[in-house]
Give the backbone structure.
Amino acid sequence: MEKELYLIGNFKMNLTKSDIIPYLKKIKKMAKNTNNHVGICVPYPYLCYAKKYLNHSNVLYGAQNLHYKESGAFTGEVSAEMLNDFNCDMVIIGHSERRNYYNETDDSVNLKVLKALSSNIVPIICVGESELEREKNETFKVIDNQIKKALKDVKVEDLSSVIFAYEPIWAIGTGKTATSEQAEEVISHIKKYICKLYKLKSTDLIVVLYGGSMNEKNATELLKMPSIDGGLIGGACLNLEKFGVIFNTKIND
Ligand code: PEP
């Protein structure tokens, strides 16, 4: 049987309308026959075009952040209700760039996860260690703590509506990919840890992606690992030909 993968592109703060509209039209056609789950997280101003071109298509779409409050005096922020106006399927939460540059904390990540779930938007929860933490052998400790805090008050029945992404900080946008063994080791640990937290008997419903310099050349190697359910892809998703190679990856289970 073919493994059903999730391949989700994170545009970050890249591309503008003149690139995005042709991209959306093309990805819709390119993803028509893939058996994988394909998605893109675009900058807020382009969600209107994602809705226009991708609604009811094979391509999921969403945002890269949200605010956990419904409304109010939060200049520059965007609420889950606003994302729902664009029928967003998903939202990235706790990306390391937001944790590092915008003071995203484990507590705000948790509030955002709860808000996304109660708004029927799939949260893609990002976790990952820094290079120094890996060198100090603290990877599992750091990740367990991020996961435990992100999932505070999340009910067991909501776990199947959550996607996790293991994104070692040292591999994001650096061209330095984790080896497939390193990614597998951490992702299989994450699945076991969540099972332990929720006293689950099986890891079947837990979806964990790998993110960090995944590209058209290394994707198969990473995606064939048994615990890896897909990829969160930054740089390489901006080039649709490359992203197409990645989201058409076929792995036999
Ligand atoms: C990301 O932004 O989530 C990411 C994995 O970026 P890149 O693929 O560029 O390392």
Observations:
- The chain has one domain: 7-89+103-244.
- Residues 180-198 form the longest helix (19 residues).
